[in-house]
Design a protein that fits this description.
The protein is of the alpha+beta class. The protein contains 3 helices and 4 strands.
Length: about 80
């Protein structure tokens, strides 16, 4: 997908209007949050919070490594 977006003046700020096709691909709508993160080739827009993803990956690693301890604590 290659979409050209125009930067528009909004009060003292600037913004872009996302077309409905892009909103559908991001699975977001009015009021939802999207996240912009730097990537090697520019900026990436995503609906997933990158901080939350990193924390969940760490939690999954801990749960795999300490499975026996967590099982005992759950009793």
């Amino acid at each position: 997908m290659n979409t050209q977006l125009k930067v528009t003046k909004i009060g003292n700020s600037a913004g872009v209007v996302l077309p409905k096709e892009l909103l559908a691909r991001l699975r977001v709508g009015p009021g939802d949050m999207i996240y912009a993160t730097e990537s090697p080739d520019g900026v990436r827009l995503t609906a997933a919070n990158p901080d939350f993803e990193a924390k969940m990956a760490l939690a999954e690693q801990i749960m795999r490594e300490d499975r026996d301890i967590l099982r005992v604590l759950a009793k």
